[in-house]
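Hi R.,

Here's the chain you asked about this morning:
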Amino acid sequence: MNKLLNLVPKKYQYMVEVVEESCGVVEVVLKEGYEYDVGSSLACYERGDPDFCNADGTESEYKIKKCIADDISFTVEIPIAEWRKNH
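And the predicted structure, written out as tokens:
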């Protein structure tokens, strides 16, 4: 079980292949046939980014979850053959 999957809202988890973190960067990889609206199946979020921190500079789990949810909400489903050609 992917422990970081909790960063993705349950209603979108079926679209996610894996959520990984390395050196403070969270990567959300979508399954075949799904792309973010920018044409990629990978999105990265740097935990130390000011957009994901509280006013005091501490990391905010809530803010990163909200951004992931917002990005996935614009995900599009495309035919597998087209997806494989593009990836």
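Residues 40 and 87 are 8 Å apart (CA to CA).

Let me know if you need anything else.
M.
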